[in-house]
Amino acid sequence: MGKNYKIAVIAGDGIGPEVAREALKILQVVAEKEEFKYETIEYDFGGERYLRTGEALPGSALEELKEVDAIYLGAIGHPDVKTGILEQGILLKIRFGLDQYINFRPVKLYPGVWTPLKDKGPKEIDFVVIRENTEGLYLGMGGFVKKGTEDEIAIQEMVNTRKGVERCIRYAFEYTKKRNKESKLTLCDKANVLVFAHDLWQRVFEEVGEEYPSIKKDHAFVDAVCMWMVKNPEWFDVIVTCNMFGDIITDLGAMIQGGMGIAAGGNINPEGVSMFEPIHGSAPKYTGKNVINPLAAISAMGMLLQHLGEKKGADLVDKAIARTLSSGKIKDLSTQSGLKTDEIGDMIVKSII
Ligand code: IPM
Ligand code: MN
């Protein structure tokens, strides 16, 4: 008899609920096949609730989220709420509050998906970005002096703790070993300019790296990483990087793997509760139109299953996505595919065999 998982679902704003619905459909099918049970606990956090109550995420909710096996997030962002409030108040609050110190982002081109890179295919575009997820420029340390005047100073600190950097780099080495592709880990930094912050990253990378003699250690500055991701993506196996650079290069990664319609990520606390989400936003103008492709959301559900230890279930989802995409039935991952959100969800359900 399988397990009984508790899964928190934050469907969120805009098209979040539509794509989350499809992902949950997939979860149900996989659970039946793999014979595990689950219960979902739905939370209505998002723009609507914030506008109604003035509260983005109550403190008590964080405590509740600490008790579940995993969190599934649809999308956050509302046109009537000032930029930053929901991002800080929900997404970052959960990442920080649950100490989800790894942002795990596969960049994988499925067969049958169009990439803007000439002469590159699924063989060349298949790597993982491991982004530090709780420190760096995201911590929110800093402030204004003489705000609103001509002499204004705005400072945002880039915070790097030895412990924070080390746990991220160690996770990346462990994962590179486990992934067992080319056993190559690339440190992406800007140590030629950020001579304190990224000096620490380089020293820790070297030190921890000594414990992993079988892993090839590679290094590239972040600007060069952007260049190589476009020119020679096949050079990468696993990339480890800080929070801000990880944010930027994973959007580039999403584009070379076919766009936001397919990119998913995990916010992972290896010792605690993790959260999985499609990378795309809430796309407010498409809300309720049933035109957004739910593959990124479904892929995030696959990652959640993998994380729970349901490896066969995760594999079923991944293979179903790959099979559907290589069949050529989905011509386009944007809103122009001519297919409805639930139609694509149903196609994946049928491909789970
Ligand atoms: C992401 C997003 C978030 C980030 C935003 C919404 C705060 O862009 O998950 O990559 O910057 O981390
Ligand atoms: Mn981002």
**What is the SS-derived class?**
alpha/beta
Could you tell me the number of beta strands? 12
**Which percent range fits the helix content?**
40-55%
Number of domains: 2
Task: Describe the fold and architecture.
- The radius of gyration is 20 Å and the shape is globular.
- The longest helix has 19 residues, at 16-34.
- The model has no long low-confidence stretch (mean pLDDT 97).
- The protein has eleven helices and twelve strands.
- The protein folds into two domains: 1-110 and 262-353, 3-Layer(aba) Sandwich (Isopropylmalate Dehydrogenase), CATH 3.40.718; 115-257, Isopropylmalate Dehydrogenase.
- The strands form two sheets. The chain has a ten-stranded mixed sheet with strand order 2-1-3-12-11-4-5-10-8-9, sandwiched between helices.
- 40% of the residues lie in helices and 20% in strands.
- The two termini are 21 Å apart.
- The protein is α/β, with parallel strands linked by helices.
- Helix 1 (16-34) crosses helix 9 (295-308), helix 1 packs parallel to helix 11 (341-351) and helix 5 (162-179) crosses helix 6 (197-209).
- 3-isopropylmalic acid binds next to helix 4.
- Manganese (II) ion is lined by residues 247, 251.
Short summary:
With 353 residues, this protein is an alpha/beta fold. The chain is 40% helix and 20% strand. Strand 6 (142-145) and strand 7 (153-156) form a beta hairpin.
